């Protein structure tokens, strides 16, 4: 239905939405920015909101996001049955609380905790909140006397910059250098001192999809402590990779098998295969989470410990996470993640064979890869490529890397559950069709300032 002004007068901001009466009942006009004086028929309200949302991008074609865009219909039905359950109210909804506890223990076992059935952990609204909690635990365990600092790569997600800002911790970033796009043990060690609360390592950099060398960082810190230096814990930000490596790279040691790893987080709504709204954080042992961070409340009906930043939130995503664990099991997760990696690596290989592009990564860690234009391609930019693909409905982000590689601009593709070989073929077809038009240009039409995608904590450093 058309959403235009009844008098067709152009205005900078619409004050009303005109509703086509063929599809609706009263009222004919609904306000856009003012609180409605009267209620609206539910079908009218639905139609107005539904029609506007049609202008959003297609989530399944969004190759920028790591967030799950497909679940089985049974999961959606289960979530609809749990939207009204408050996750924090464990006294009123004890079975939902039990599902959360089971998920924490399953993840602890998946990540090789010393005693998976006696760890502490919790669900969160996403990996960003989980990182905040892990960072707070590191800060409270720290016993230095100066200004606390945290060591991390410039490729970290922006939630770590927020953590440092919100909780007054100095971030010590390891910049990218040359062909090194992640943290290195040597560079991390150079920034560690007696006031370092922890080192953050990433299993699956959002810039290029690669794993960071967690074991090497831990080994360097072990040697530092053995020489009488500070004893610095490690947190693993496994927003994506913590739900990939256990299934596809079981021999890779990055988790609680390393005694220096104090905590791990992941996104249930990324490669945990759940719709948006759930993350997880698990500590190695109960002692790794200082007791002063655990609050106990009793006004919801019984005394309950809570250590999440958020309070009330729906239990639907937790139920969906437990459903997914039951539905797939270890072998099912392995098959899903292997298919994603296979599609990513094949897509990366065929893009490299097109000619104008060079791969930075190939999707062999998390199923995501970054690629750039060859140095001799000067008539168009990666931002032009992104815009050309958007015209066909694909959302493929283009962005510049942080210090010290701000000269490098890339495209990145994330392959998620539901992105099939068939969809990969369609993407390749559209990219092939776009290249002759791009090659006909005499100069890039779009530069970095035109990019609509700002990336991570390092995007402005």
Automatic annotation (TrEMBL):
One of its GO terms (molecular function) is glutamate decarboxylase activity. Residues 442-461 are annotated as: Disordered. It comes from the Bacteria. Its EC number is 4.1.1.15. Pfam families: Pyridoxal_deC. It is an enzyme of class 4 (lyase). The keyword Lyase applies. Keywords: Decarboxylase, Lyase, Pyridoxal phosphate. Belongs to the group II decarboxylase family. This is Glutamate decarboxylase.
């Amino acid at each position: 239905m058309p959403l235009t002004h009844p008098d067709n007068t152009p205005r900078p901001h619409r004050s009303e939405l005109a509703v086509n009466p063929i599809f609706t009942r009263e009222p004919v006009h609904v306000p856009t920015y003012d609180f409605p004086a009267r209620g609206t028929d539910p079908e009218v309200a639905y139609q107005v909101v539904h029609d506007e949302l049609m202008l959003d991008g297609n989530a399944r074609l969004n190759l920028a996001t790591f967030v799950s865009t497909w679940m089985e219909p049974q999961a959606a039905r289960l979530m609809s049955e749990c939207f009204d359950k408050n996750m924090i109210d464990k006294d009123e909804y004890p079975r939902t609380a039990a599902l959360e506890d089971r998920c924490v223990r399953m993840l602890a076992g998946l990540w090789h905790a010393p005693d998976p059935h006696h760890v502490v952990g919790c669900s969160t609204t996403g990996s960003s909140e989980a990182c905040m909690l892990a960072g707070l635990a590191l800060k409270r365990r720290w016993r230095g006397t100066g200004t606390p600092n945290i060591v991390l790569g410039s490729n970290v997600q922006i939630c770590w910059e927020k953590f440092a800002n919100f909780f007054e911790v100095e971030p010590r970033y390891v910049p990218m250098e040359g062909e090194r796009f992640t943290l290195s043990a040597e560079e991390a060690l150079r920034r560690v001192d007696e006031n370092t609360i922890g080192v953050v390592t990433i299993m699956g950099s959002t810039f290029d999809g690669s794993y960071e060398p967690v074991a090497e960082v831990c080994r360097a810190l072990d040697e530092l402590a053995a020489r009488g230096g500070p004893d610095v814990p490690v947190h693993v930000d496994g927003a994506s990779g913590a739900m990939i490596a256990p299934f596809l790279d079981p021999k890779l040691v990055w988790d609680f098998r390393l005694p220096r790893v104090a905590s791990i987080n992941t996104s249930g709504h990324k490669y945990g295969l759940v719709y948006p709204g759930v993350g997880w954080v698990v500590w190695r042992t109960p002692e790794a989470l200082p007791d002063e961070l655990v609050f106990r409340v009793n006004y919801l009906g019984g005394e309950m410990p809570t250590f999440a930043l958020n309070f009330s939130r729906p239990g639907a995503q937790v139920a969906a996470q437990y459903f997914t664990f039951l539905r797939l099991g270890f072998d099912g997760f392995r098959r899903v993640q292997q298919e994603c990696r296979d599609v990513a690596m094949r897509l990366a290989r065929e893009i490299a064979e097109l000619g104008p592009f060079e791969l930075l990564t190939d999707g062999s860690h998390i199923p995501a890869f970054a690629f750039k234009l060859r140095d001799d391609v000067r008539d168009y930019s990666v931002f032009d490529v992104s815009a050309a693909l958007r015209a066909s409905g694909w959302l493929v982000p283009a962005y510049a890397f942080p210090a010290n590689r701000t000269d490098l601009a890339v495209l990145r593709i994330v392959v998620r559950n539901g992105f099939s070989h068939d969809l990969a073929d369609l993407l390749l077809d559209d990219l092939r069709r776009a290249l002759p038009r791009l090659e006909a240009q005499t100069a890039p039409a779009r530069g970095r300032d035109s990019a609509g995608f700002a990336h991570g904590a390092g995007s402005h450093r």
